[in-house]
């Protein structure tokens, strides 16, 4: 009995000691005061071996990683990252292959460090060491990160499993021990064992296959380029592919997907081919490997959307699949997502950020060139104009709060790094890069980017000063900047300050006076802003378009006022920032604004479409921020009855939806606004009708959809078509649905009887549960239409499960439909979110996406009870975003306090006039 007690007590004591070590962190060696690796050692090469059984539905895997290491600074510790890996063996060898004694290894769970305590001091320049680690892990995880499982059902209804990776930003460490920081680049040799009927794919080309016992095989891959761990990727699946091999130089481009989707891959392969060659030519740089694979993953198993892994790019199925019946809108989606991830092959992969602070050097370029190179590779899609309605609008919205961060921003925790993947990194950065493209001239900017690539690709790690150096070199050579100007000063004023500038302009004869300040949508702080920028000022008149894209002059920072003379012919008006090339808002003095509005109503074609869009957006947002002058605003909006172009209408639509969102709880204001909106959009509805045609351009399809969403209620023919569409779905699901169908469904559901709505919801529920419905787009359209059913949708799925399953864009549309169009109580949505999150583990994909969803919901909160409910949910499930939530809620209340009364008065007078 005593021996048993001794054994038991010993085990308990050992467990307690381990718990103490894990709880306290490192108890020996140096103390860690940062979440950054100490980098006393650096890796020079990885050899990674994985043995998987995913083909049998077994989710555990074993691994062996050998990391060649150089010692940079004398140390008795090797510190790298590891999380979730169960380490079974660890040993260290010197360059002669002899073992180096290791005292022990420990885990610092807070920092996710694996600390190897060596029995001797390792000296710099003492040769290469090899750290070898055997480990086990599992792909059975629910956070859709690291190496994890997905599945699909084959034609016989059998579930087939696959394993894939999603490592950005800090999840390579959750799949194998590694130095998991973006500025650490080295090469990888990868070996993967899988079932004989499965394929293994990785970053580099497949070098060979060896058959093994037990129905398995070993796939060996070529050595990768030097790269960071977050780009390491592999796929273990039975997917099929479509491939095209290009020559001069040789490049194999393929798209992989489950077998039943093989017919949906051709367009993505062709788009990839066209974009890749356009990109190589534009930047004067060849892609680094001889193959690049696209991989399509089931939407519900892939929250990332897409990921630029070098040579093995992953996407949601709905992002990359295409069939001809879908037309140009879907083509735009495929080209832009492929373009974004392929641009990363240079910006992010070839040139890696030194730290996450410079994430915008990845994402800004990818966001810009998915449109600008996409416009070169696919000129028929007119992608450049879509930048104005997409990233520019998104950035201006995100950058107008007091709590927004600058582009370059340091943080080192897992949670903090995750939050850097925001609209500032993607959209604002793209807007600033685009502004510099026009300010320097595209030829000079392109030249500077070629210098940037060539001067930094060998080292492969960059920070913002490297970009500034290269752009300055090109600008000086081409003499497009005054000799005293510095790109470090100019660009740095944008990358290192938060916010967007407001340029105020007044006129005295032919002389124009400019001042600048930071624009915020809410009350400015008690202490005045000190922000100031180098701003390229562009303008145009009907007789002078010389400076409509390039700057007439640079407005320097920290100057009280700048004067500039512009001669105009009689009857001409000047439009500033007319092509929306500058990242700033314009506030005209009262007389200038009235002249512009008068001209817009007289002949809006006097101005280019981007100038009309800019005037609309700036005027509305300034009115919202100030809380007045709505007679002038409505007079400007009134011209939209004659507007037929995509860019101004999309910008107007964005603003009108914001107004609908904030007025949703005010019945009188909502009704007046809806009447006004219907007046504006009815001519466009009459022009485009309600019949979808595949041959229509994407712009026409989207304008028709906007017209239906805004004005269907005022058109008998549209109402009839909408009700017919709902009833048709209630009778049976068809294979293809367009955005027109989606808009008609939402309009129709608001009108039909309770029984018709019930039949509609039941049919969607039945269709979504039908295992024979394999069409991803039919499912997607049906899921999106659920939000049109309001409270009835909960008979199919809870609000929370529904919202968490959607991508960011679809989620935004769904919330508007639920809360504004269907008038679902916001409390019901928040309570559903709380209920669902309470059931989920902290590392689930639901918990990961909770901040995004809560921030999106915050845009709709206007009542005190709603604010309390949302604050409670935030405090429980995402406390780190509480300041942003609070800022949004204060902005909402301020908007209502300032705008409802003057807006209602102006609408009443306008509609009664």
TrEMBL record:
<dbReference type="Pfam" id="PF17900">
    <property type="entry name" value="Peptidase_M1_N"/>
</dbReference>
<feature type="signal peptide">
    <location>
        <begin position="1"/>
        <end position="23"/>
    </location>
</feature>
<dbReference type="InterPro" id="IPR014782">
    <property type="entry name" value="Peptidase_M1_dom"/>
</dbReference>
<dbReference type="GO" id="GO:0008270">
    <property type="term" value="F:zinc ion binding"/>
</dbReference>
<dbReference type="InterPro" id="IPR045357">
    <property type="entry name" value="Aminopeptidase_N-like_N"/>
</dbReference>
<keyword id="KW-0336">GPI-anchor</keyword>
<keyword id="KW-0862">Zinc</keyword>
<dbReference type="InterPro" id="IPR024571">
    <property type="entry name" value="ERAP1-like_C_dom"/>
</dbReference>
<protein>
    <recommendedName>
        <fullName>Aminopeptidase</fullName>
        <ecNumber>3.4.11.-</ecNumber>
    </recommendedName>
</protein>
<dbReference type="InterPro" id="IPR050344">
    <property type="entry name" value="Peptidase_M1_aminopeptidases"/>
</dbReference>
<feature type="domain" description="Peptidase M1 membrane alanine aminopeptidase">
    <location>
        <begin position="267"/>
        <end position="478"/>
    </location>
</feature>
<keyword id="KW-0449">Lipoprotein</keyword>
<feature type="active site" description="Proton acceptor">
    <location>
        <position position="341"/>
    </location>
</feature>
<comment type="similarity">
    <text>Belongs to the peptidase M1 family.</text>
</comment>
<keyword id="KW-0325">Glycoprotein</keyword>
<keyword id="KW-0479">Metal-binding</keyword>
<feature type="binding site">
    <location>
        <position position="363"/>
    </location>
    <ligand>
        <name>Zn(2+)</name>
    </ligand>
</feature>
<dbReference type="GO" id="GO:0098552">
    <property type="term" value="C:side of membrane"/>
</dbReference>
<feature type="binding site">
    <location>
        <position position="344"/>
    </location>
    <ligand>
        <name>Zn(2+)</name>
    </ligand>
</feature>
<dbReference type="GO" id="GO:0070006">
    <property type="term" value="F:metalloaminopeptidase activity"/>
</dbReference>
<dbReference type="InterPro" id="IPR042097">
    <property type="entry name" value="Aminopeptidase_N-like_N_sf"/>
</dbReference>
<keyword id="KW-0645">Protease</keyword>
<dbReference type="GO" id="GO:0043171">
    <property type="term" value="P:peptide catabolic process"/>
</dbReference>
<dbReference type="InterPro" id="IPR034016">
    <property type="entry name" value="M1_APN-typ"/>
</dbReference>
<dbReference type="GO" id="GO:0005737">
    <property type="term" value="C:cytoplasm"/>
</dbReference>
<feature type="binding site">
    <location>
        <position position="340"/>
    </location>
    <ligand>
        <name>Zn(2+)</name>
    </ligand>
</feature>
<dbReference type="Pfam" id="PF11838">
    <property type="entry name" value="ERAP1_C"/>
</dbReference>
<dbReference type="GO" id="GO:0005886">
    <property type="term" value="C:plasma membrane"/>
</dbReference>
<feature type="domain" description="Aminopeptidase N-like N-terminal">
    <location>
        <begin position="42"/>
        <end position="231"/>
    </location>
</feature>
<dbReference type="GO" id="GO:0042277">
    <property type="term" value="F:peptide binding"/>
</dbReference>
<dbReference type="InterPro" id="IPR027268">
    <property type="entry name" value="Peptidase_M4/M1_CTD_sf"/>
</dbReference>
<keyword id="KW-0378">Hydrolase</keyword>
<keyword id="KW-0732">Signal</keyword>
<keyword id="KW-0482">Metalloprotease</keyword>
<dbReference type="GO" id="GO:0005615">
    <property type="term" value="C:extracellular space"/>
</dbReference>
<keyword id="KW-0735">Signal-anchor</keyword>
<keyword id="KW-1133">Transmembrane helix</keyword>
<feature type="domain" description="ERAP1-like C-terminal">
    <location>
        <begin position="574"/>
        <end position="763"/>
    </location>
</feature>
<keyword id="KW-0031">Aminopeptidase</keyword>
<dbReference type="GO" id="GO:0006508">
    <property type="term" value="P:proteolysis"/>
</dbReference>
<keyword id="KW-0812">Transmembrane</keyword>
<dbReference type="Pfam" id="PF01433">
    <property type="entry name" value="Peptidase_M1"/>
</dbReference>
